[in-house]
Response regulator NasT
Amino acid sequence: MNPSLLLISDQQTKNKGVSYQQLSEAGYMVHSITPSDLQHVSHIADAMVLDIPVFRLPKLYHKIHIWQDIPFIWWCDESEQIPHLSEWEAELDSIVYSGMNKEQIKWAIWFGIQNCRQKKQWREERNQLIQKLEERKWIEQAKGILQEWKQVSETKAYQMLRQQAMNERRKIADIASAIVKAYPLLGGTRKGGGSL
């Protein structure tokens, strides 16, 4: 089954109707709205096709970028002059135009959906890595505090963190951050001077 498409078509677009007709003929279920109707959209389709002039894309993109998990596909008017990549503000997943046949349109939309999925996966992986780095930072700082405070080795400090986390059924990073945050309140200072 082909994805459903939300076609955002500007009333000022010269070829209004062509994009809807070609997308429908390619087998897509197309729901067409104008940019001013965006605030009333309750159902988001599998992809958005933006049939608006290139100079209006950045402004519209800022309204719709909240739906970053939805592929953005631009219906390009072949007569428009495309801006240089350095001037491009919208994150598009694919581009289609009226000169494409049904199969080319299907492939372009399929690639757009795949691009969007890949970007979503990269964002999720990036966020997980950032979280792991943040947790690692807390753990390293807490190990340093325990080494200094309890006069133990780095390995023993980690074992203490791990044991406390198991006892409280919490993540090691949570225990570590609590230690680091409480340390200055207890009058602790790190080697080399100031408090944390």
Summary: Residues 4-100 form a domain with the Rossmann fold fold (CATH 3.40.50). The longest strand covers residues 4-9. The radius of gyration is 26 Å. The chain has two domains: 4-100, 126-186.
